[in-house]
Design a protein that fits this description.
With 324 residues, this protein is α/β, with parallel strands linked by helices. Helix content is 32%, strand content 19%. It contains 11 helices and 9 strands. Helix 4 packs across helix 5. The protein starts with 7 loop residues before the first helix and ends with a helix.
Length: 324
């Protein structure tokens, strides 16, 4: 697929028309206050993984509604001081997978927490966290679950889980809470942006080809799932376009980006039809912190920079998480 979106100079000037709800902050304050009414109950159980250079902990904590959410905490063996912390969120359809697939950040000397995504983990990697909340009829996938009402929308639960995951990871004595970064690709990148807007004291974020940004443009520009799930839903639920747009506005990465208070390293791929480049630039251009960079991959689709972006993160992130 050749370039299909705006030109790169246009992308660098593009700003989303996604309307921000007047009660955006009140909505999320209420949501997180309710979640924090439940004991975090973070539990770390050491597991035998066959790995000798890292220690692996099976983690359970209370997310949205007090529901149990799983994760992995992976620590380099032999660390004598609390470590800078990387909290990772995974892509659409995936779960936390198996510990040996998450060795990058521990190998670089960081504590690494991987959050399982509720109700997912049956697409390309396994998950162990149920989503006990039902929804009205929805198109197969997750993007239309509860889309009739922002309080019932699936990603309200996921974004709340993400905030609680950071709190759980920070509660472990091996982690340095003051040096915490959030990272993730695609859906994980969108969750990372939500965390940036909801957790004010992160030290850095690295959203890679992020999903869940600039819904008005994304849902009308690309035919690919997951964004196409919204169009398929509206094909059947005629007359629901306005309410659907209202719900999605509470979860748009553009609005979370406008509240970002940490240095940020984004990435974008100019042939990406899953998360079109204009939607990524919409979040990048709205991002509030002045220390922000974006890596541009000219001829890549949704794979983005892949290992090249990981190498860029390995150059960039240690500087932001260095001891003061």
């Amino acid at each position: 697929m050749a370039l299909f979106d705006l030109s790169l100079p246009e992308l660098r000037e593009y700003h989303s028309l996604s309307p921000e709800p007047e009660d955006f902050d009140a909505f999320w304050t209420k949501t997180l206050d309710e979640a924090r009414g439940h004991d975090l109950d973070a539990r770390f159980e050491r597991v035998e993984s066959g790995l000798t250079l890292v220690g692996v902990y099976d983690v359970t904590f209370a997310g949205f509604g007090g529901h149990p959410v799983k994760g992995w905490l992976i620590l380099p063996v032999g660390a004598s001081e609390p470590l800078p912390l990387v909290v990772e969120f995974v892509g659409y359809g995936g779960g936390r997978g198996l510990p040996h697939t998450h060795l990058l950040w521990a190998s670089a000397g960081f504590a690494h927490f991987v959050m399982d995504t509720r109700g997912q983990g049956s697409g390309w990697s396994t998950g162990n966290t149920a989503d006990p909340v039902g929804s009205a009829p929805s198109h197969p996938g997750f993007l239309t679950r509860g889309i009739e009402d922002p309080f019932e929308f699936y990603y309200r639960r996921v974004f709340t889980d993400a905030v609680r995951a950071i709190e759980a990871a920070r509660s472990h004595p091996a982690t340095d809470a003051s040096r915490t970064a959030a990272v993730g690709g695609s859906q994980g990148g969108g969750i990372t942006l939500a965390a940036a807007g909801l957790v004010p004291d992160l030290a850095a974020i690295a959203p890679d080809v992020p999903f869940l940004c600039d819904f008005p443009r994304a849902t009308t520009l690309t035919d690919r799932d997951p964004y196409r799930e919204v169009g398929n839903y509206l094909k059947v639920h005629r007359g629901s376009t306005e309410q659907t747009a209202r719900t999605l506005a509470y979860f748009d990465g553009v609005h979370f980006a406008a509240r970002g208070r940490a240095p940020a390293l984004f990435s974008v791929a100019l042939e990406d039809q899953t998360c079109p480049p204009s939607t990524v630039f919409a979040a990048f251009n709205a991002y509030a912190h002045e220390d922000k960079q974006i890596e541009v991959y000219d001829f890549n689709d949704h794979e983005g920079g892949g290992p090249f972006q990981q190498a860029a993160q390995l150059r960039w992130l240690p500087q932001r998480l260095a001891a003061g």
